Amino acid sequence: MNRVLRFGMVGGGEGALIGDIHARGATFDRKSALVAGCFSRDAAKSEITARKWGIDSDRVYATYREMAEKEAAREDRIDYVSIVTPNNSHYDIAKTFLEHGFHVVCDKPLTVELAEAEELKRIAEQNGLLFCVTYTYSGYPMVKQAREMVQRGEIGDIITVMAEYPQEWVLHASKLSWRMDPSQGKSCCVADIGVHIAHTVSYITGLRIDSLCADMLSHGPLMELDNNANMMVKYTSGATGMYWCSQVAAGSRNGLKIRLFGTKGSLEWQHDRYEELQLALSGKPLQLLARGRDPMFPAAAAFNRLPGGHPEGLYEAFANIYAAFGAELSGILDGSGSGAAADYPRIDDGIDGVRFIDKCLESSQGGVKWVPYS
User: How far is CA 202 from CA 71, 235, 280, 371, 372, in A?
Assistant: First the structure.
């Protein structure tokens, strides 16, 4: 398709971190343009955001329902909507836009309740609509390279997985944020960053959880929800895993780390060295593989944007997800079918994230017991 995709955004008003990252990622390659939005319940903030992105005033809406209805009636309607609001609003917003015939990109976790996530899938499939859930780390080229290496058996069969995601921001919180508010969700830490562990491991390895045992803990006077969690995992293949996520880990910034141990060797990726993979093959010297320098499989190299030594980070990871989604959507809109089966996280990944949260809660609240994942 030779035209730029048009999209709208719900959430992401002035001062919102994740909304701005989504907007920049979606427009990074100039293949999508932000043309409409309901950015905030605060009209002044919404107008500021609209002016920043050069959006006409008649396409700045007071509510997401008004936006869905009026955009659906336009000849130059948006092609998709990006939802970047707090978790407990995702379901209603996504359902409204799906019912008006719009493709959807939604931040994670997909919904609060599993039944809501499954209903969104049903509506999307009935209407032939794409649904992307933005699990960021699958957009990094070296995560894609790790996936290709595992799929090709370079480290053999996976024996065990060790994964962690520590942060420290809750230690410095002086007031309750929406993530910490039990009226807006059932989990803070696992819902915010634990799902990133689960998805990144699943994306790289293809492993599926058979059962898990979780201990979700809360530290500090502001917290009712979890801000530190330990999880043991058994996979259907017989492999095992240990996950840890924390928002009270002093000295930690955004420390996602995935270590995979197989019958032939091990592989490690960590977010603060996102352009590298550490490979250890049995009986051979330790190797450090660098993006843009060392050979990469085509499926991963296709997402490289700059030569080695020129860092590609978070914005580029989001851009890669939006580019893949946009490629498939363009193929649908122009009837060519190009971009089909593009590499981006889909609604099934979103459903699995909600299931992961639910199962961790079931285990932890049930006395830290093993629970089946199905």
Answer: 36, 10, 21, 19, 17
| CA gap 243, 63 in Å, rounded | 39
What is the model's pLDDT at position 266? 98
Second-level CATH architecture of 5-129: 3-Layer(aba) Sandwich (3.40)
Question: 138-306+353-372 belongs to which homologous superfamily?
Answer: Dihydrodipicolinate Reductase; domain 2 (3.30.360.10)
Residues 54-67 have a mean pLDDT of 96
- Cis bond before residue 109 (omega within 30° of 0): yes
Q: What residues does each domain of the chain span? A: 5-129, 138-306+353-372
133 with 91: CB under 8 angstroms?
no
Amino acid at 171: L
- Residue 10: beta bridge partners? 38, 83
Contact 202, 208 (CB under 8 A): yes
pLDDT in tens, 323-368: 999 999 999 999 998 888 899 999 999 999 999 999 999 999 999 9
pLDDT of 1 higher than 80: no
SS3 83: strand
Pairing mode, if any, of strands 240-246 and 228-235?
antiparallel
